[in-house]
Design goal:
This protein is 0% helix and 44% strand. By secondary structure, the chain is mostly beta strands. It has 2 domains: 49 residues, no CATH class; 82 residues, Immunoglobulins (Immunoglobulin-like, Sandwich). Strands 6, 9, 10, 12, 13 and 14 form a 6-stranded mixed sheet that branches. It has a two-stranded antiparallel sheet with strand order 1-2.
C-alpha cells in the first residue's frame, strides 16, 4: 500500500481482504472526497461533501402587520456550522442563528426576500430565498 498525492493505492494479493476507512482532508486540499473500492473482492464508491448541506430550506411567511415573522433553516455538517441571514441579498447584522425573527413586520417589509448562508471550514451554501408577505 502506498500514498501518492491524494490517492491511496493498494495492490490486491490473492486470498487476502482489504478494508479501508480513512479521511484526512484540510480546507486547503478539497471540498469533497470520494472513497472507492473495487476489484474481485467487491467494492463501492461514495462521495461526501465536506461543506454543509441544507436539509430544510426557509419557507415563505405570511403575517399580519405588526406581528413577528420567523424564518428558519435546517442544515447538517460533520463540522461546526455558522449562519448569516440576508435580506434582499444584504447581510442582516447580528442574524447568525439557524432561525431569524423580524420582530414586527410592516407594510414596507412586504415582498422582502430572506435567505441564509450556511458555512463551515470547508465551504458554504446559500439557501433558497423565502418571501415575506405582510397583510
Amino acid at each position: 500500500m502506498r500514498v501518492i498525492a491524494n490517492t491511496l493505492t493498494a495492490s490486491h494479493v490473492s486470498g487476502t481482504r482489504k478494508r479501508f476507512r480513512a479521511l484526512a482532508v484540510t480546507a486547503a486540499l478539497a471540498t469533497a472526497f470520494t472513497a472507492c473500492g473495487g476489484g474481485g473482492y467487491g467494492g463501492s464508491a461514495s462521495t461526501m461533501s465536506l461543506a454543509p448541506t441544507i436539509t430544510t430550506q426557509p419557507a415563505n411567511v405570511t403575517v399580519a402587520a405588526g406581528q413577528p415573522a420567523t424564518f428558519s433553516v435546517v442544515a447538517s455538517s460533520a463540522y461546526a456550522i455558522t449562519y448569516q441571514w440576508l435580506r434582499d441579498g444584504a447581510t442582516i447584522n447580528g442574524a447568525t442563528a439557524a432561525t431569524y425573527t423580524l420582530a414586527a413586520a410592516t407594510a414596507s417589509d412586504n415582498g422582502a426576500r430572506f435567505s441564509v448562508v450556511v458555512s463551515n471550514a470547508y465551504g458554504s451554501v446559500t439557501s433558497n430565498a423565502a418571501t415575506l408577505t405582510v397583510q
